[in-house]
What we know:
The structure holds 2 protein chains of 2 kinds. Chain A is an alpha+beta fold. In chain A, a hairpin with a 5-residue loop joins strand 4 (62-63) and strand 5 (69-77). By secondary structure, chain B is mostly helical.
Amino acid sequence: MCGIAGRLNFNREPVNREQLGRMIGTLSHRGPDASGVHVAGEVGLAHARLSIIDLDGGAQPMSSADGRLWITFNGEIFNYIELREELVAKGHRFLTRSDTEVILNAYREFGEDCVRHFNGQWAFAIWDTQDHKLFLSRDRFGVRPLFCTETANSFLFASEIKALLTCPEVQGEIDLQGLDQIFTFWVTLPPRTVFKNIFHLPPGCSLSVENGVVRIHEYWSASYAEAADAHTANEGQLAEELSWLLEDATRIRLRSDVPVGAYLSGGIDSTITTGLVRKIANDRLRSFSITFEDAEFDEKSYQDEASAFLGTQHSNVSCSSSDIARIFPEVIRHTEQPVIRTAPAPMFLLSKLVRDAGFKVVLTGEGADEVLGGYDIFKEAKIRQFLGRNPDSKWRPLLLRRLYPYMQNIQRQPTAYLKHFFRVAPEDLSNPFFSHLPRWELTAKLKQLFSAEVREATAKFDEVGEMESALPPAYRSWSYFGRAEYLEARYLMPGYILSSQGDRMAMAHSVEGRYPFLDYRVVEFAARLPANIKMKGLDQKHLLKRAFRGRVPESIERRPKQPYRAPDGKCFVGASTVDYAEDLLSPAAIRQNGIFDENAVSALVNKFKSGRASSIKDNMAIVGVLSTQLVIQQFINQRKEGTETCTESKFRTTSTLLS
Amino acid sequence: MHRVEIQNNIHTFVVTNFLFGQSLDLLPGDSLLEKGVIDSTGVLELVAFLEEHYGFKVEDDEVIPDNLDSTDSIAAYVEKKLSCAV
């Protein structure tokens, strides 16, 4: 795993090597083992390396044997061994054992379509000296990040936004529409980010720059159309197929020249992936987990049970509210976007534990909930749909109590109110976003905190309409369950789960995550399964449980789903308030940055200080405000103070990148 | 306690507690559920407020939208409870 950066000057002016060095210098946490810069006239590629495969031969930027192609690459192509054999048979020469060189020769052989042959997680840029073409690509699910921007004379890209912000001509301003989207969906809609004119290449997309023209094209997207043969198939056969696919996905993800560890959360997904690693590698596996002081969030007993069952050598790190408060500014320096939950923070501590134990690579269970019907939002949608079909039913609302067994507020709620909270208007049933409406409506309430100016500026945005216009044509023909899965996998997963909680927290300590459930073969297999096989009745991940029965402790298979959560608002403001939160939430700081209304924020802070705040909304609100203030402080205000040459650029092709 | 005074107290609590002090266009008869002012925790917060502030117990079967769904209806409910207690 690594960090990449680069620049192409449209006016053919030579790239400034020092400036490129500054860009890659900001990414040393992603690649502390080595760094390299390649400058050739108007193009420059840079690389910060975390050595994992071909430790001696994989230095980057790397050129093809004939010097025509140059690449800077972050990630892994897990099927590189098979691809290499295929390419050798076609007459390609290799000088190294690295997967990087496989990309180069695959590009030579297949052109832009090479990415369709890759099974992996990647963000890379290839400079073709012959065609004067820059080609960028990002993996199917957005595991690895890739940001870009265009100034008057240049196209720039990097693994993280902070590298782009070292360039004086790159703006550093909040994009209010991006912010409005985060305060609706928890994420921005790609390619938009929370920074004006800085874009994220969407998952499953490639980008080329040729003759000054930037072009993005989607090379892959999942179809959630239920397959007819999957309807008639025997459930046992499907379970067997899933099991085989996951085992193979894990096997190729163990390709590494350094030891591989595993996250073990205490849930079924990571117990399965860890068990598969044990089965395939058959050695003393190291596993890692987070424990919480607060029993509401802690899963230690299940982690210990899984570790004992699988025979791993287990280590954990304890996370308290004060830990979260202490590291949160650093966490936001890595998320590079506001968040409305603190859940990334414990992942930051976990990756440090892994790194301190001498590991660079971990396998995790990420992705299972999205692709195999694990999330509560799918269950909620199922129950709401059931209610909506007979809204006057006396007993159907009782099912709502089975929705969130871990949330006391819901359990204590009178049925009359429960019915109201999860009410389904007749028109909702045909709404394309049926499953997600309650979440988005709740999150959007946080906009009450926006200042009058921001409310006015954002009033014209139609965020849901924008998402609707980006939906694949077949979306409306999918079941409500398939649609819900698509929305999670397309938006929340890359924009938050795999980034703010995933890559960015792991790479903060130079650790690479690998996700067997996000092997595209597993995802494509799962996407076409009928909803009632993934969630039978209200049994989440039904097929997965069946496929691995006996290979997971029974108590873990049977336990109710417990989503990964962490203590929120009270970490920062309460009986005592951490200093930086006191400063950043003060009326003066709120007024200075202009995003939020100082009186509204004061009312929220006072509610926390008086101990009256406990709702999900209040917690999301304080974390959202604080993290937004931290983004502005760390990426905008401090930059202004330290960079006098920061100027506004004439952005030529905003519309190209956003179209 | 006068009905208007109760209603003002309730309105202030709702605005401060659920709307971050921004009253927007909340009218006395507006449904707190329909307008999305109150969420699942909000009902519990409201019940706790009524019990602490007015000193009566809100019975389980009284926690229904008919009693608690607008500042108007809450004020009427509080008035009724207070008059019973006298």
